[in-house]
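Need tokens for this chain, all 627 residues.
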Amino acid sequence: MWTCKNLWKKLAPLARSSSTLCRQNARGVLLNNERRLPLVPQAHMSSGTPGSGGDNNLYYLLVGATCVGGGFYAYRTIKGDKERYQERINEIASRPNKVPIAAESEESSEPIAAESEESSEPIAAESEESSEPIVPASTPVEFPSHAPYLLIGGGTASFAAARSIRARDPGARVLIITDEPDLPYMRPPLSKELWFSDDPSVVDTLRFKQWNGKERSIYFQPPSFYVSPQDLEKVENGGVAVLTGKKVVHMDVRGNKVTLSDDTEISYDKCLIATGGIPRNLQVIERAGEEVTKRTTLFRKVEDFKALDKVSRDTKSITIIGGGFLGSELACALGRRSADSDLEVIQMFPEKGNMGKVLPEYLSNWTTAKVKSEGVAVITEALVKAVSFKDGKVEIKLKDGRVVKTDHIVAAVGLEPSVELAKSAGLEVDSDFGGFRVNAELQARSNIWVAGDAACFYDIRLGRRRVEHHDHAVVSGRLAGENMTGANKPYWHQSMFWSDLGPDVGYEAIGIVDSSLPTVGVFAKATAKDTPKAATEKSGTGIRSESETEGTASSPVASSTPEPPPVPEQKDNYGKGVIFYLRDKVVVGIILWNVFNRMPVARKIIKDGEEHADLNEVAKLFNIHDD
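Here are the structure tokens for all 627 residues:
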């Protein structure tokens, strides 16, 4: 290389002098002859006689050799720098990880980063031994900056979508982000079976016995099922990771990325919004002050179950405001517990009976009597006017002048769909039903889907709807996952829901069940097998929708059992039966009262959308008169 440099130093003056001499000769010829020179002599750059090309060839050879030598020198220099840089990086990486204690404490606040707690002592010791500067490149990454499939929300819909995605794309990398500290779990047992457990440690284990006697956890899968967020991008065959305790606060749909509450950004290829809902509260409670607020439970999550369980053991009086599914289930559960303690359980609501917005009045009244028999003091037609805290008690004043004093309030007055991301994402929210408006494939935009409680979808039979039940979360999440992998399937499923008032009384419903609609009820005498407990013993699962959503029904064929004498609708004891809800003489909703494993038949009746002259004949399809 040095030889090339020295050669260039010696030859450069010669090249410059030859070029200068050539220009001077050209100017002299032009002045003497007063005419333009031919183009060919102008091109010569040597000091020889014009027309001789030997010196020019030598000049080109020298310049070319110089360029080649300079390029080779640059290549060797850059290559050497890269080798020295890589050696430095390898040397740094081989050192022990010197993370400061303060930085580690921030990382260990992640709920699923258990390893950081176990290794905090060695890290602290090492940081005391050495004060070497920290290299940012060696700081571990807590979660991926990109997820091909990003699922916002950690509930049933998200988990169903994750399983569906992995079933169709086995190598898929799925990231679930949830603001809860828990892995995905099912919500129904929080107001049902968990309260009837005999295990004193049920609050910690969150395991329960189903009505059929089998034990299971509320979590869909154990922690070993998931990969850690740190490893999601590295695992060979992909997997499902859950980032807990993080909330998505902003969506950039053009840039395909989301921003978390700690300003972290994560990009995605496809995204599912399954944010569920937030429990509603009464304004009179919100305005009542801190003392009332801290004595009020809005029941929705695992932490709410744990808190209410503790309250039920430490206080003497609990008042449940709300007469719907959740309020009635909690009232029965707490009422059953009060039999072994001095706990007073009160339930109040504005309707005339329990579940008065769903059940026809005669059945609502029967249900109210059932709740009372569980040890609950039921106050009907109760409109709350004001709530205050006086003399160590929460005082509830009703509009008719009645006053109820209690230690704790459970507000079970409905759910508000969580649509905070609509503004930043530019997504449409339905003005009538709430929730994100989606098309038949549950799509809100080209690469964004919505499932579960937050989805407002169009039902081809019943119009636009929003459903807040477990079965809908399972089916809509599953379908959204399939469509995220290219299935392009429409949502046609008629979701069902169920409610149990203890192990002896339960019902399953499908379609539009609204007590303001005309209804026809057909009932029969119940037997020992006509209970939620018997139904789960037969199906083998406590979550009844899991056993029925895949079921299908053929064309309805009436039972061959002879028709029994008509059952009076106003009978005092409604053991089991079918309630049909009509709109324009067409069945749009069905409740199966203590009738189980017949939901595919009910689904087909609604799907057919036909008028029926005699619903007593239709009721035979459910075999309610069979022993």
